[in-house]
Every structure is written in C-alpha cells, then in structure tokens.
Amino acid sequence: MSGQHRVVGQRHRKIDGRAKATGRARYTADLSLPGMLHAKILRSPYASARIRGIDTSAAEVLDGVHGVITGADLPETYGIIVWTRDEHPLCVDRASYVGDGVAAVAAETVELAELACRRIKVDYEPLEPVLSFDDAIARPQDAVRPGERAEKHGNVTKSVTLSFGDVDGGLRTADVRVEGEYSFENTNHVSIEPHAALADYDAAAGVLTLWSCTQVPHYLHRELSRVLGLDQSRIRVVQPAIGAGFGGKSEPFDLEFVVSKLAMVTGRPVRLVYSREEVFLAHRGRHPMRMRFEVGARRDGTITAVRARNELDGGAYSSFGLVTTYYSGQLLPAPVKLGAYEFSSTRVFTNKPACGAKRGHGSVQPRFAFECMLDEVADAIGMDPIELRRRHDIGSNVRTINGQRITSNGMVQCLDAVERTSGWKEKFRKLGRGRGIGVATSMYITGTNYPIYPNEMPQSSVTIKADRSGRVTVLCGASDIGQGSDSALAVIVAEVLGLDLADIAVRTQDTDLCPVDLGSYSSRVTFMCGNAALDAARQIEALLRKHVAAEWACAPDDLVLDGSRVFLRQDTGRSASFADAVWLAEAAEGPLVRSGGYKTPKLGGDYRGGTIGASPAYSFTAHVAEVVVDEATGFVEVVKVWAAHDCGTAINPTIVEGQVQGSVYMGLGEALLEAQVYDEKGRLTCPNLVDYKVPTAVDTPEIEAIVVESHDPEGPFGAKEAGEGPLHPIIPAIANAIHDAVGIRLRQIPFHPARVLAAIEASREVVK
Amino acid sequence: MRFHYHRPATLGEALELLAGAGPARRPIAYGSDLLVWTKTGTRRPDDVVDLTGIPELLRIEEIDGDLVIGAGARLADLGRHPLVREHCPVLAKSVAVMGSVQLREGASLGGNVCTASPAGDTAPALLVAEARMLVTSTKGTRHVPARDFYTGPGTTVVGPGEVLTAVALPRLPPGTVGTFRKGSRRAAVDLALVSVAGVAFPDAAAPSGVALRLALGAVAPTPVRAAPAEDLVRCAGLPESPDDELGCTFAAAARSAARPIDDVRATAAYRLELVGVLAARVAAELRAALEANR
Amino acid sequence: MKVLCTLDVNGRRHELAIEPATTLLEALRDHLGLTGTKRGCDLGDCGACTVLIDGAPRLSCLTLALAVQGRAITTVEGLEDRGRMHALQDAFDRHGAIQCGFCTPGMLLSVKALLDRNPTPSESEIREGIAGNLCRCTGYQKIVDAVSDAAAELASARERGDA
C-alpha cells in the first residue's frame, strides 16, 4: 500500500471550494419557492408541564396566517434509535424541557408567524422539573418520560455495566493506585449554520419534497414517512450545501416534520429556520458526565486495571442515548493496553434539552478523565508520560480487552512525531513556573459496525455513471457537511479510472437519485462510502479494460488508465480518450452505470453490547499542548498545539490537516470556554453567542497538524477517519500542561479562570 | 421589528422629533445595541431617529483645549484618530479592545455611553479623563461630569427629549501616562468581567509627587473611581510591582471601591480578586511609564 | 408601511420597497436574492453577515438598510471580477481554508478590509482582524495561512503593477 498515487494523497482543491468561496453554494435557508410560507414553533416556557389544552383560534384568524398545527396533528413518535422513539414533533400532552415545541404556525412572513405564535393560548400545568442526575435517580416517580419504561426504570434511559478481566485483582496487585472524580459540562456544536428546512408538497401526486441540512437523510426519510403517514416512496429528501453539523444535525428535528405537515395542510411550500436560540434549545450536544475512575498500575507503567463509574445527564429525550451510554465505556481500552477493565454507565432523563451526538460522541468525556489519570500514574512512577504511552501501546492486529479488533495502529508514530516537533524532552518539567507542556492520546472509531436499524443491506452504496462525454458522475447519499466527503469520493474515483478531478461530478444528497447511505456520523463516510465508490469504480474500470482490450487485441492488464486516457503499456503511442473507451464499453454492455456497496464485517465482542464501539478500523491521535498560566488571574493561554493523527492514508492531506486543526479547536473551546448552563427552573442561562463563548481566532493558537499514515488494510487506499478522533486528546493535554505549569490537577471542564485560580489557591493552602 | 424611521439632517430637526415624543421614539446611531434589544423584545420602539446623518455629531476636534468627540463618532474612527491618541490615549486603548472590528465600525461613542452597561469599555476611560457629557434638548445644552452621568445599570441622566451630543475631554496635565486593562473570558470580542482604566501624572501638590486617577468597570452598578487607591498613591506613590507590599496594599484599596455581583459571566468573589490584580498591574505599568518619561 | 430604499450593491443600484425596520441583511438576502451573505445568529455575535460598507466591515444584521443608502456596499458576490476569483477567494480555496463554507463570505470581506487597510499584517494582526468572524470548522489555521499568502501575492502584484 505504499508508493505514490496519482490523485490520492495530493493536495487538491475541494470540488465545492469555488462555489463556497464565491457565495454560489446554496444552503437550505438560501432556498425559496414561489408562494413560500414561513413557519415558527411556539415553545414551552416550562421545563416540565402537563398541557391541559391549546387554543389556537386567535392565531388562526390573523390575516396572513395559513396553517396552525399542534401535537394532536402529529401523534406518531420518532427517534434516531428505533428502540427509543420517544419524541413528538410537537408535544402532545406534556412539555419536557424549556423549549419543547407545542404548536407551529405557517404565515406570509416570519414576523407574522411569530406574532401568531404569541396569540396561541396554552393551558400549562407546571410540574416540578427534574434537573440533575441525582434528582433523576432520587425521583423515579416523577418520570421525565412517563410510560411503561418509566414504571420499570424510572428516569434511567440506559444502564450498562461491562466487566473484562479481574479488576479487583488488578487494582489490589497494583504498585500504584490513582483515583479521581471528573466532570464534563454540557456543550453545544455551534455550527454557524442554524438548522433549516423547506418542504413542498405536491398534493396531486401525493409527493413531499423536503430540503434540510440533515446529516442523516436516510434515517430522516424513514421517520418522515412514519410521522407523516406518507409512504417512503412518496417522500424525497434533499440536502443542499450544509453549514457544518458535528453531530448536531445527525437526527431528525421538530422543524423537519413541522414544515412538512404545514406544507401538506396549507398546500404551499413552507420554510423554517431556527434562531440561534432555538439551536441551543434543540441542543443534542455533549452529555454532561460525572466520572469516577480508579486506575491501577505497576512500576513499569503497565495498567493493571481500570474501573470507571459514569453518570450521564441525557436531557429530556433518548436521542442517541443508548449508544452514548455504551460509548462512554467501550472506547477506552486502547491505545494503552489495559490488564482489566470495568465500566458502569448510567444515563438519565432530565427536564432539559436532550443531549445527543457531538464530535467524539460519548468518549471525549471519559478520555479526558483517563488521560489525566495516566499522567498521574506517570508522575507517581517517575516515568515520562509519552514514554508510558509508547511502552504500553496496544499495537496492531490485536484485540482489545473488550473484543474490539484493532488492525492498523499508528499511535507510536504519532507519539514520536509530537515528541519531536514540540521539543518535548527539552520542555517537560523544565519550562519554569507558569509555563507547561502536556500530552494526551486517544483512539476513535471509523464508522460503526451496525446500522441504526437492523438490516443486512450495504451500509453505504455508491453509483457511478460513465457518460459518453467522458465525464463520470458519482451518486452517493452521504452529506458533505464541510468535511470534504464529496471531494474524497471524487479523488478515489479519479484514482481508479485515471481521470482528472475536473472530469468527475459528484452528486450527493438526494434520496430520489442516490442509493442509500446511512449518513455522516460516527466518522464513517470516507471509509464506507469510499469503499463503496472503490467497488463501483473498479467495476467500471473492468468493463473499460475488457472492451478496449478486445478492440486492441491485448490483455486487459496491458492497459494503463491515466490523464483521462487509456494507453497500451507496451506502446504508449497507442491510446484512446476515456470517452472513446466509454463508447466501446457502452456499445457492448449498455449504459455504464454500476453500483458498489460496503458492509462492515461482523465485528465486536461476543457479549451483549459487544458490537457497540466495534468498528472496521480505528484512528489514533496524540496531542501536545503548551500553555501559559497567569497565576494571579487564572487565565490559561494555550500557546501552541502539536497534533499528530493516524488517518491510515490521507486521501487529501490538506483536508486531513483541516479536520485535525478544527477538531483541536473544538476541543480547546470545550476545555477553556464552553458550557451550556441551566438555572433552577431549567432555563438555559445563555442561549446566545455572547455568553456561550466559542474561541475566536485570537483565542486559538497555532495548530501544527501532523499526518501519520499506517495504511489500513481495509480502508479505501488505506484511509481511516480524521473527523472526530483528533478532538479527544486536546482537553486532557491542556489539563496535563496546566499541571506541568502550576502543579494543579483540574478535573472539571471548562478550565475557566475562576476555577483555575481557586485550584491554585487551594494548592497553596495545602503547601502551607 | 416594526418601527418608523427618521433621518434628520440637522441636530435641530432631531431634537424637535424627540421633544415631547415619549420613550417609544428612540434615538439610534448605528444600531448595534438598539437593534439587538428590538430583535429580542427588550425594547419596542415605534420610531427611531437616526442621528448619523447629522454632521456636527460626527466631529472629532479640539475646541479651547478640550477634545470634543461627537456622540455619533464611530468607535473605529475614534480609535484611529490622531487627536484622540494624542489627547486621551487611554480612551483609544479602551476602544481598541472593544468588540470586534465589525462592531467598532458599526457602533458610536454616544451609543456605547448611553447604553451605560456596567461593563461598558469606554466608561472607565471617560471617568479618569474627567470628561464632560454634553446633553442637549430643544432647551439647550447642559454639561454633566462623567462621574455624575451614569446613574445605574443601563441608566443615565439623559432625560426625555434629550440627546447626548458630544463628550468633551479636558486636556490632561503635562506628563500624563494612561492605560486600560480588561479581563474577559476569552481573549477577544468579549464583555469585560472587570476593567480598569488609569491615568497618572506628576503632581507637585501630592506628598508622593504623583497623582493617579483610577476607574473600575463591571464591579459596581456604574463605573466607579477608586478613591481609596487614588488616596493611597497620593501619599505613598505607585507600586513598582503588583506583588510587592505596596502593590498588595494598592490592590486591596482598589478592591474596597468595588461592589461586584454574581452573574452568568463570573462570581462576585472572582471579580473582586481580578479587579485587585488588574488595578495593581495598571498602577505598576503607569509607574514604569512615568519613569521612562523622566 | 413600506418605504423606498435605494441601495448600491456591488456597483449596481437597486430600488426596493421595504419596511423601515428591514436590516441590510434582510434586504440583501430576501429582497435582492443575494444569498451569499449568511445569517448565523442575527444578533451580531458570529460575523457571518459581514459586508463592506464604504470598505469598512460591518454586521449587516445590525445595520438598517435605510441607514446605508448612498453608501457603497460590497458583498461576497462582488468580490469576483467577471468570473475570476479575487486573490483572497483563490487563496482560501487553495489552502483548504473553506470547510463547510458558511462563515466564508463574511470572513472574506473582513479579510479584504484588513488587507486594504494593512497590506502586510502580522499573524496576530490577521487573527485580530478576523476575531469577529467565528468559524467552527477550520480552527482558523488555514484561514490565517491563506491570508498571509494572499497578502504576499497581492503585494507582489502591486509591485509588478498588476493589481
């Protein structure tokens, strides 16, 4: 798998770069249709309330209002996970968080829709909300999600305990034991594009078209059918350009159902764009977690045992909660090898906006805790923390203790790279008071082993059409959310067929045209869609070779596809254009349209839940962060970050670097600034960008991204993910750097100045 | 949002529009505060009177030794203006760290002053400059010292029918040095958790030979002068370092002038801690600047 | 009650009938169909709506359309020249400074204003210049790289007399 490729590995421009640079790219909120109405959702001001009645009459009579709906109009539930369909587009008889939608209006203008919403009278019976993990456990009788499940489980969404090896023994026989309690706040994705949806219903044909910035068109497609009572074959989901997601758009949302229903009711197109506040209310961000860890180690750095207890505050709906609960434990047993491991994770419902998937879903929080503990272990045994991780890396082609199959593993190269480029050896423990350097590592899945609804069909399919003009069209259902998946597909196909990128058109994101792809989540697209594209491209390649070879009376392998031409290897003077080759093949075979698919092999541990966290490949990351801590004010400045990431093969190194840098940035924001905070009534204190602070360009340091390539045996051209793994280590790396600088261990996110200052002052007390 | 829009060409026209019109008719400069409030429903004006078409409100000029800045002057222009940099560098420094480039290009001094946020960035500089606020109505102009201008969080002495038309900054004593520090959660585009503006100059009348004017922002309902810290300097001089004995005493004196609250951005306790540190750093910086000038 | 408003956008004059409280952002997107300028928060905190008014970067979501009649307004659509991308657009594209692209129009205009005022900015001046434009995808690094590169390119074009 070594050697130069023609297109793969080159620093091409993204195929959608020009459209985005010139303002031509059209995002959902940029679209409009003749006669379009604007919708707004009325949202509950109470965190928990029974809805005794809704009177929409005053809204309906307003001139310019064309449709008003409530939960009664959409009684069917939905949810991203088929076993926990616990959401209604609009509340039926109960509001479960401040912001839960209770009614919606379609009107001539946004202003009118808002006015009409204010005229709707909702008879609420406020209830005492459940607002914390402890509260949720203590009050099972006050179910956030009442029903059969609640009668058995109270407010627990899911509880998972898994145990591998002898943890008690491992802890008992350890030379060093470290314990700690860690906590992680609620954080939001803050994609710059707010959610938007536009629906058009052709009543005569009975066909609904929905444009949405969704990361999961296929799952959305299924839930739309269910909720609207329309056959899936009568629904078309299209994704326009998408202004980022990070997991925040990876499940169906209320607005998608609301615009669809209002379009059906009014007979006119309906568009709804979230305000920034609504994006915060819809949330589906990172779960707050309280984590208690015990780690046992030997003097040589071997980790003998880890025990983790994780408490997840899931908010008002299940969302991805079942999966999050597993991920909070299942992804820890690599890169450092564990002798024994047990985790116990519980996710509860509370009356707050639901948590879902955010970049590094479920594993960022425990990784923070564990990488800090590794630092404490290294400190206790007097070993350099990079050396500890290098010595005890699990290696390649092994199984983790919980049954995950690791194939390619570039962890050691990552550690070597950051150690070298950061000047680690000259800096660690040597920078003087107030300045410090820290390291952390992580691994992450490259797509998951299972589709969200059980089935045996390909997880990704790609159709390739070679046209008589010599142009190739790639059809794939995956959403390019900015990560460059469309470009990756083009590069892969160009590589196989010997084409220039300019000869390839990628048409993604339309359920009418494209075969099913499960969506842009869990870092699956490059690997799975890439493999599907590879499969389809090779089929086309084989046909072209066969028929040109027949025409030239040579063997198919005697042909070289390059520069949008076909050459005879033994005599490159003999050549034909790619288009000519297409003509030959099409004359014999009919239209050159071929589809490829990809399905993961059966993976995972042989126990209940063993497939969750199983992935066909894992990425590996190491970060070093250098910080300056102002001891008088608690301000932490991250001076520079070195981030090495094993992505298998960089289909496009520029894009991989961008993903690494963006991931580091996002983790840095969580480490230092971001927290979604609620008051005693369950209201968000800061549903805006003034007080929910994300890093500006001034807050963000130089980020040196280093691409490491371990060439995965199963990834397309060896590629693995680069979109989520690189976020994890920055948070503990900063915590560990702060320790190097001023000797304090921070165990609560974010490390805001007051918290840092208090910890510094407390450590001075101890010294006294 | 729904309102009527007026764009008078002269101050007289503007004042006529506002006279007797009631609170639902609001003056507007570039709108960076008023439009946010109107969108979020905090204010519901029926009419807005755009002052940015009135040339005399945009002037920055020296009149009889005072630097007179029209209330409509844009913060970005103020920050770049040679007269402001020369006459009142502490104001130029404050403006440089306010908001973003876009906000500074689309916000006015008058708007910022009249919004009167306790965390407002121009206020501490105006207090130490001992500025006079020119408040005008159809009845004429009154001059209000900056220290009397702010009456509470979001409130000023500007009454119905009145408009802030200019801010006059008297010439500071010879040899004055000034600086501004702001503590915020992130390094750019943020509200102050705490801010400190200070000017110092040689003063033969002071036992220590040096006088300090120190103003604190975001630690009280209005920006405040820190009299105890100023008195300390009059007697004992400016500290050389925030960490030496005088520096610690100075920090405590500054803190005693602060009455911060808990809010979503920070706790009162942290603000108190931070204001002492920043004030002491300001003082030490001013001392070094005075020494450099000698 | 609608009023007449004349806006000069990208060198063309447009006459609109708008409600007085219409922001420049709404006028551009909804009335003129210039959807390149984006709405990220509508309250002036994200910078996605940045346009140039007489060359100065301004938040169009916090600017009344009526207040900027007679001013030269530049949006992202006005950066290219007869199909040729502006050096900044090209630099962004080349350097991988565009991921989801939603912040890009506003970012480009802030950067243009920066370079027009300060043709040789240091890295920290670049970061200060774009501090009002939030990006959640890139971590800003490739944006800074693109701007440095474009600044150098524009400087040498000026020296050659090309610019």
In helices, the fraction of residues of chain C equals 25-40%
How many helices of chain A? The count is 20
Named CATH architecture of the largest domain in chain C: Roll
Biggest sheet record of chain A? 7 strands, mixed
Which regions of chain C contain 5 or more consecutive residues with pLDDT less than 50?
none
Fraction of residues in helix of chain A? 25-40%
The topology string of helices and strands of chain C comes to EEHEEEHHHH
What's the CATH class of the largest domain in chain C, please? Alpha Beta
- Under CATH, the homologous superfamily of the largest domain in chain C reads Beta-grasp domain
CATH topology of the largest domain in chain A: Aldehyde Oxidoreductase, domain 4
Give a quick account of the main beta sheet of chain C: strands, pairing sense, barrel closure. 5 strands, mixed
Q: Fill in the CATH topology of the largest domain in chain C.
A: Ubiquitin-like (UB roll)
- Strand-pairing-aware structural class of chain A: alpha+beta
Tell me the domain tally of chain A.
3
Quaternary structure annotation: heterotrimer
Please work out how many helical segments of chain C DSSP would assign. Answer: 5
Measured between the Cα atoms of the first and last residue of chain A, the distance is 60 Å
Instruction: Please give the CATH class of the largest domain in chain A.
Output: Alpha Beta
Largest Cβ-defined interface? A-C, 56 and 56 residues
Number of domains of chain C: 2
Describe the protein's architecture and organization.
The complex is a heterotrimer of chains A (768), B (294) and C (163). Chain A starts with 16 loop residues before the first helix and ends with a helix. Chain A is of the alpha+beta class. Chain A is built from 20 helices and 28 strands. The longest helix of chain A is centred in the last third of the chain and has 28 residues, at 525-552. Chain A has three domains: 17-24 and 457-598, Aldehyde oxidase/xanthine dehydrogenase, molybdopterin binding domain (Aldehyde Oxidoreductase, domain 4, 2-Layer Sandwich), CATH 3.30.365.10; 31-127 and 193-243 and 249-282, Alpha-Beta Complex (Aldehyde Oxidoreductase, domain 3), CATH 3.90.1170.50; 289-450 and 605-767, 2-Layer Sandwich (Aldehyde Oxidoreductase, domain 4). The model of chain A has no long low-confidence stretch (mean pLDDT 96). Chain B is α+β, with helices and mostly antiparallel strands. Chain B folds into three domains: 4-50, 2-Layer Sandwich (Uridine Diphospho-n-acetylenolpyruvylglucosamine Reductase, domain 2); 55-169, Uridine Diphospho-n-acetylenolpyruvylglucosamine Reductase, domain 3 (2-Layer Sandwich), CATH 3.30.465; 177-293, Enolase-like, domain 1 (2-Layer Sandwich). Chain B contains twelve helices and 14 strands. In chain B, the strands form four sheets. Chain B has a five-stranded antiparallel sheet with strand order 4-5-10-6-7. A four-stranded antiparallel sheet of chain B has the order 11-12-13-14. A three-stranded parallel sheet of chain B has the order 1-3-2, with helices on one face. The longest helix of chain B has 26 residues, at 268-293. The model of chain B has no long low-confidence stretch (mean pLDDT 96). Chain C has 163 residues and is an alpha+beta fold. Chain C has two domains: 3-78, Beta-grasp domain (Ubiquitin-like (UB roll)), CATH 3.10.20.30; 87-157, Orthogonal Bundle (DNA polymerase, domain 1), CATH 1.10.150.120. Chain C has five helices and five strands. Chain C has helices at residues 24-31, 87-95, 104-117, 123-129, 141-160, and strands at residues 3-9, 12-18, 50-53, 56-59, 72-74. Chain C has a five-stranded mixed sheet, with helices on both faces. In chain C, helix 2 (87-95) crosses helix 5. Chain C is globular. In chain C, 63% of the residues are buried. The mean pLDDT of chain C is 97. The chains are: A alpha+beta (768), B alpha+beta (294), C alpha+beta (163). Chains A and C meet through helix 1, helix 18 and strand 28 of A and helix 2, helix 3, helix 4 and helix 5 of C.
